[in-house]
Amino acid sequence: MEEYVPSRRRVNCYDTIEMYNGLTTDDALFDSCDPFFPQITGVSEGRNLRIRYKTGSFIQYRGFLMRYLQQDVDECAMTPGPCHNNAFCVNSEGSFQCICKPEFTGNGFECQEIPVQPLGKYLLPVLASSVGTGLSGAMLLALLFAANSSRPPTIWTP
């Protein structure tokens, strides 16, 4: 036996408003003729909200399409700002981005100073003196490795 389900629409319902999510009428947000529909929410997923007005016994299918923009909130102007002290805050419509300053690294919300590696104290003198002395390539590589390693240099003798 089939269960009887009453129609959700009243037959004689005029001067009503229907609201739909987006450009089409596929996703209803509100129908003032539908007694089962909750209160108006009017929140669409994008920036388009289709509104139809029904008067008399027919629907004005054209209705109108409302495109709206939410007023942008400048998160960068907030105190305290959302970004790390060593980051730039870039505001955009509906969002913002934090970018670490050039001397720092991180995601913009946390920025750490990039450690500077000092040159080995023997690197520059070795390179300068090797130009005119004709050191062999193997000897030059051994000296560069020794100068930049954390242990004291060892000299190999045959």
Automatic annotation (TrEMBL):
Annotated organism of origin: Crassostrea virginica
Residue stretches making up the EGF-like domain: 72-110
Membrane-spanning residues: 122-147
Xref: PROSITE patterns: ASX_HYDROXYL, EGF_3, EGF_CA
Name listed for the protein in its UniProt record: Bone morphogenetic protein 1-like isoform X2
GO terms of molecular function: calcium ion binding
Alphabetized PANTHER family for the sequence: PA14 DOMAIN-CONTAINING PROTEIN, UROMODULIN-LIKE
Keywords: Disulfide bond, EGF-like domain, Membrane, Repeat, Signal, Transmembrane, Transmembrane helix
Pfam entry (one): EGF_3
Annotated InterPro entries: EGF (IPR000742), EGF-like_Ca-bd_dom (IPR001881), EGF-type_Asp/Asn_hydroxyl_site (IPR000152), EGF_Ca-bd_CS (IPR018097), NELL2-like_EGF (IPR024731), Nephronectin_domain (IPR052235), Sperma_CUB_dom_sf (IPR035914)
